[in-house]
Amino acid sequence: MVVAAIREEASPELETRASSLHWLGLGELSRLIKVFKQEGVKRAVMAGQIRHNQIFSSIRPDWKLLQVLMSLREKNTDALIGAVAKVLSQEGIELENSTLFLQPLLAEEGVLTLRTPNEDELHNIAYGLKIARELGRLDLGQSVVVAGQACVALEAMEGTDAVIRRAAQLAKGQPLTVVKVAKKAQDMRFDVPVIGIPTIETMRECGATALSIDAAKTLVFDREQLLATANEAGITIVGTVAGA
User: Fold this and answer.
1) Are residues 120 and 199 in the same domain?
2) What is the predicted pLDDT for the residue at 243?
3) Which of 83, 181, 188, 225 is most buried as measured by Cβ atoms within 10 A of its Cβ?
4) CATH number of the domain that residue 38 is part of
């Protein structure tokens, strides 16, 4: 397995996992292509996370990436990564769906936890889904936080955990419902929605009692421990039909 690791984000543990590892800066698109060609790579999968604010604050683009940036009409994350994927394809390197080897980690439809949502939480989820779908259509964020069928906070670049904490400051003790969705035209090659134990711990800390995620389009990491943590905290997690 050949790994191109982003220096600003990837774990040093990769040193023990990859048969061939190359460390690159976030903006080194030309070097990435050179590495892949030297290694004979024709197919690649994006794994892990690059924080959105990193892309726009820490990136130092080489000339090839600078050309990509200058060609973009909109400077959002999907547009940027989509353009990079197009350049890779032109160089004979095809990006596969990031869930190619992760199908068992995708959430299924229905209640995933021991507790089912109560009536208030169901209303919050239904309302939050409408807002979150529109947010996704605008290609802004993936998560909204709702309390009493009112939208408390919307996600932009800060990430799900940060928007939950911001909502807790605004809601002043009201129980929160978190709704996280995939975009209607989600490109499964990158930026697939993910939940992990830290999100559940943040919800417990902030008084969030319900979480809705898109079935078949959301990755659930450390599933057994995540659900145990949610059950212990009395948090309900529901997999909804993407696009509903």
Assistant:
1) yes
2) 54
3) 181
4) 3.40.50.20
Task: Tell me, yes or no, whether 65 and 132 share the same domain.
Answer: no
Do 48 and 147 lie in one domain? The reply is no
pLDDT digits (tens, 9 = 90+) for 40-62: 999 999 988 766 655 555 678 88
In a shared domain, residues 80 and 57: yes
So what's the pLDDT on residue 57?
59
Q: Where are the alpha helices (DSSP H) in 117-159?
A: 119-137
How crowded is the C-beta side of 115, counted as CA atoms within 13 Å? 19
Number of domains in the chain: 2
Domain that holds residue 38: 2-95
Cα 212 to chain centroid, rounded: 14
pLDDT at site 158: 84
C-alpha dist (Å) from residue 234 to 14, 55, 169, 217, 218: 35, 36, 21, 24, 21
Predicted model pTM: 0.86
CA-based nearest residue to 166, from 182, 148, 154: 154
| Rounded Cα distance, 5 and 15, in Å | 10
H or E segment and range at residue 147: strand 143-147
Indicate whether 215 and 134 sit together in one domain: yes
Q: Which of 51, 71, 95 finishes a domain?
A: 95
Answer yes or no: do 120 and 76 share one domain. no
CA 143, distance to chain mean position in Å, is 10
The mean pLDDT of 73-81, rounded to a whole number, is 78
Whether 174 shows a pLDDT value over 80: the answer reads: yes
Which of these three, 79, 95, 111, is where a domain ends?
Answer: 95
Residue 5's H or E segment, with its range, is: strand 2-6
pLDDT one-digit tens code per residue, 94-111: 999 999 999 999 999 999
